[in-house]
TrEMBL record:
NCBIfam families referenced in this protein's UniProt entry, alphabetically: PRK04296.1-2
Family: Belongs to the thymidine kinase family.
Catalytic reactions on record: thymidine + ATP = dTMP + ADP + H(+)
Protein name as catalogued: Thymidine kinase
First-tier enzyme category under EC: transferase
Enzyme Commission no: 2.7.1.21
Key words of the record: ATP-binding, DNA synthesis, Kinase, Nucleotide-binding, Transferase
InterPro entries with a match to the protein in the record: P-loop_NTPase, Thymidine_kinase
Amino acid sequence: MPELVFFSGTMDCGKSTLALQIEHNRSARGLQGMIFTRDDRAGEGKLSSRLGLVTDAVEAAEGFDFYAYLVAHLSKGGRCDYVIADEAQFLAPGQIDQLARVVDDLDLDVFAFGITTDFRSKLFPGSQRLVELADRVEVLQVEALCWCGARATHNARTRGGEMVVEGAQVVVGDVNQSEDEIGYEVLCRRHHRRRMTAAAARAAALSPDVLPVDA
């Protein structure tokens, strides 16, 4: 039976790489998929991995209707054997409902990829709806690591190396940005709670007036 599968994890854990791998494996067997994305780091209409892999995709902007798009594609004689939706956390709950309808009414597998929570540890609405509707939720096994070496479980937004705790939920950025740009860093829960980024930890280590961060 077709399924709606949600692959979730923190930033930098290989979600987009897995999406590209699924596309490669299925296309190698003669299947044809439809790839969608939203606000990818490589720009509009691209699905990219930090490993340097990139492919074309349909940009699912605000108001985009997945079900109507696929029905129109199939009605014109197009082929689609499965659907990949990357950056699914940015989708509206109604768009997730459309993906579920694609599974149920068009009998297509849908593989959605996204992070679950934002920089404030709050659920993205799209991710919340995926957890509610998905046939399966798969947590990726490639663990991203906090600067301390522990498993990273939270996404932090940074500016100038310092953790930002206020602002719009969606601000496009990436890990390894320069310090004067909005960037992101993955942290363990302990250091996310303490707002202790790698830059803050280095600064603390150089100061004789602070206690060790793990004391």
